[in-house]
Amino acid sequence: MTMPDTLYGALMLSLIDFVASMVMISGIGVVLALFPLLNRIGRVDEEALRKRHH
Amino acid sequence: MFDQFLSFFGALIDQTGLARFWWGNLVMIALGCAMIYLAVAKGYEPLLLVGIGFSCIIANVPGSDLTQPGGLFHYAYQGVELLIVPPLIFFGVGAMTDFAPMVANPKLVILGAAAHLGIFVALIGAKLLGFTLNEAGAIGIIGGADGPMAIFMAIKLAPHLLPQISVAAYSYMALMPLIQPPVMKLLTTREERLIRMKQSREVTRLEKIAFPIVIGIIVNLFFPPVAPLITMLMLGNLFREVLVVNRLAKTAANDLMNVIIIVLTVAIGSTMSADRFLTVDTIEIIALGLVAFVFGTGSGVVGAKILNLFLKEKINPLLGSAGIASVPIAARVSHNVALEYDSENYLIYHAMGPNLAGVFGTAISGAIMLALLGVK
Description:
Low-confidence stretches of chain A: none
Largest interface: A-B, 41 and 54 residues
Order of helices and strands of chain B: HHHHHHHHHHHHHHHHHHHHH
Oligomer: heterodimer
């Protein structure tokens, strides 16, 4: 179903899009908040990477 | 004999562009010259305005075939229309950008969505002015302050409005240091502007490498309509962060980016022919773009103030306006406004977090809009 090409459609589109964007970007924020856990896996040796660069 | 001469001369004139030259062309040539002047004399976005201005001038010389099929400017536009150029711009931007400020302070990511109210104010305004819903959506995205995304959405939703939308988006991005500060000051108190931010944690190389991979998966999974842009942004960023393909990262961030900027500017300018550009629609779109930027800035600041209601450690609300995408201009504006009140309050690193999140915020808004409008 797509939005009707009316002012009502514009209002609905705006409302749904704004709220959904907030939710989705908050979700990305939650994922990023978990990033420090990655450091439990180990660490990357930056010096070794720099020496290996092409 | 004289009649014959006049008839040959008339035929000759018809072969040139003079026969089709009208005052509108003159206005657009003056506009092109003004862009080049602003770039050269005032330093406003020279990388963009020189190319746009010149191709705008050429597009309004009726005899020129450069903008017609077979002409180089026409093929440059094909690169934009076929959505080859916008993802490549994102590729270069990804290779240039350090996303660590966004990873370091994930709670500020929400400001990347809060600062996009302007998109919807402009969208509703455009609908009230009689634009179709698709056109209104494309106009609204100007408020995301993200040039390639504005182009992407215009091509998807209203390709006939591409010149107006791209010119409005890039012009207001260049003018953000003038547009944003009054709104930011109006919505904050002096005490709020003086809030200092705590130093962010250090982001490790592993996190930096994981970021583009994780975001690439999320975007392709949840937001396929805008995946071409964000995926390329993340590929460029991965090249930068893995440290083992510096050659590719440097090429993406420098040489390739320069080539793409040439193609993009020539493509945009070549669409600015008088018959397409000198319309009431253009004035309305330019006005709506300004409304979008003002409301986006305001909603970002108000969003930061609302966030403060839930935070023990308050954030500086000037960071909110950086949630409007335009990287790094909006972050720099937040930083500079804070410095006006406290010469040792350096907000730039913190402002980059919401600023980068704004890129994702615009992309997500665009993806949801395309889905709701049934456009693939």
